[in-house]
User: What shape does this take?
Amino acid sequence: MAYTGTPQPLTVHPRRPNAPPALPEARVTGADPLLLGSAVGPVRAAELDAAFHELREALAGRRIIDVNSTMNGGGVAEMLHRLQRYSRGAGLDAHWFTMRGDPAFFALTKQLHHFLHGADASGPPIDRAGAEHYAAVCEANAHALLDVVRPGDVVTLHDPQAAGLVPHLRRAGARVVWRCHVGADDQNLHTARAWAFLRPWLETADAYVFSREQYVPGWLAGRRVAVIRPSIDPLSAKNRPLEPSAAAAILSRIGLRAPADGDGDGPPIYRRGDGSVGRVRRDPTCLCSASPPPADAPLVVQVSRWDPLKDMAGVLTSFAEAGGSLDGVHLALVGPDVSGVTDDPEGGRVFAECAALWHRLPDRVRTRAHLACLPMADTEENAVIVNALQCSAAAVTQKSLAEGFGLTVTEAMWKGRPVVASAVGGIRDQIEHGVHGILLDDPRDGVSFAAQTSSLVGDHRLAGALGAGARRRVRENFLDDRQLLQQTSLYQNVARV
Ligand code: UDP
Assistant: This one.
């Protein structure tokens, strides 16, 4: 039942006179969901195709709209690219807008993000003026959206940034879903602060989506709540198989691997989503590295936003303090360009702290540690660099102090890499300790982090077994067809409200 109609054109909306400037819209090209069959098999692909068909009928031309606060960097943007891509490919009138906000708005919403993770936040208390500013920014964004949202459209608002749009869009007749990508396993004082702020905005939503059961606050009892685990696209530039020689050429190009001897590396090229050949051209926007890791050195990789909860500094410190057990091993801590993630005001500070730590390392460690900020100008170029790093890694780490889900873990597992990760949040749903990777009970325990990492790097059989288990786990549970099936079912219910 593949959709054979005309692909949806990118938005050309008639504008109201004197309407506020439109919100930025992501230009996502549709892809037929049946293409996923090459990774998930024809039966799963056909099931998804049928679900899209039913949703198309239920929507009868109404739109599916996502609203978040950044098009680049972080798991939400990563997922929306593909959920939109397959929705558009299935013939839905799907659109994705990003909010506008100023530094004060994003500082406040980043505090809410930390609170929802159950963590304290370093910013000033959220006072009345802050709350009024949040309300004003959300109202301005809602007004800009009212040009494109029609009664009956299904609008998903993501995370604390977009929560303040709920009442505005409900009043405009939209069906509103609020999706929260962060959470804490146990509710505490900080989560209570976040909910006290957010709840009045969220009361009228038609449905709520969380990544884990544990993240659902008690006050939502009796409401329409779905638990939908995030997922990855096996066909994207980030997750498609990459030949070792292509990965090596890409890492050499960006200075994270010494060039090969003799004939040298091939060109740093890859296949883009539209079938054309892409070439990695941009350098890291910041690089702390004495010299590139030798081609044959085992590489331990952590890819994350520069966020204190990802604990890049903790990884660097435990690597430095590991003594001889990690001799010969190189570490790459890699994140996005700190100016590229518009809704994350902490990136610059966290990277600067890591860079300062790196400068203070003794020579014997500093020569084996590498920090890189990847350019974000071209999403596919960024993605293929992350792919090259993950698939070349002897071990991938995710030493997060809290984690909504942890797509970087899923991505590494899909590539069959052995993962050492903290037993926090959604990482616990992905990895069963000793079967699909290694879980660390205490995310702050740098000593056992280094010990587990070195044991994985030194034990190829264990690494191979965990990597194989990890790939199976992702294929069964965390590829996009699974998430899209749940999402289409929720949207059908919401569309019928
Ligand atoms: N990511 C990326 N480029 C970078 C750093 C991160 O594309 O330079 C991606 C990463 O591959 C993953 C996402 O950002 O897909 C991070 O998602 P995750 O769920 O791990 O964490 P979040 O940032 O949402 O807290």
